[in-house]
Amino acid sequence: MPRLSQVARDDAHPFAQAVYGAIFGERDPVAEPGTASGTPGDWWTVFALVPDAFDHTTAGFQFYRSPDRELSAQSRELGQTRAGYAVGSQFVFSQHCKAMRDVGFTDEQVAAIPHWSTAGCFSPGERALLAYTDCLVLEHGRVPDGVFAALREHFSEVEILEFTYITSTYAMHATMSRALRLEYDDVDDRVVEVADPHGDFAGLDVMAVVDDA
What we know:
The chain is an all-alpha fold and 213 residues long. It has two domains: 1-68, no CATH class; 70-186, AhpD-like (Up-down Bundle), CATH 1.20.1290. It contains ten helices and no strands. It has helices at 14-24, 42-47, 51-65, 73-87, 90-102, 107-111, 124-137, 145-154, 157-180, 206-212. Helix 4 packs parallel to helix 9 (157-180). The longest helix has 24 residues, at 157-180. The protein is globular.
């Protein structure tokens, strides 16, 4: 379950109710969760706690899908998918793997997102975008001049600004999804202490064991 409360259909503000209808039909998504793509759908019901936030993020989706964008859908999805992977959001990564295929990427390219730097299936421009994405997400905006120079070889200033804004926004979405345990990110952290079956690890002289071996 998400870490925050969900807003039922009857309690949602008018715009959220309209979006609920488009995504969930006549169902109350809290009482009967589930979207056509197989996700629980609780991203929407939790964000509806703050109507302004719901409206703002939905406007962001409209922004990146607008025909006014100079950035191509292929470039956009490349950044969104890699951002989801880099943050570690199963939800953002999984959803945008599908979106990558929808805009023309191959299964080989989708599968290569985790190891793009050693994959040979991306063009020089795509590799520049992936390197820049890692700078935005993993280096928090620390971008070497060489990476930015590679971007400029393939993309206009407008495309670069649009890509920066959209990719950074999706890094935020991925981070929030994990923090609030939304959608596919409702999982326990697997990095935990594993119990010592003998209960005496602290007193074990590891080097003595090695020397005796």
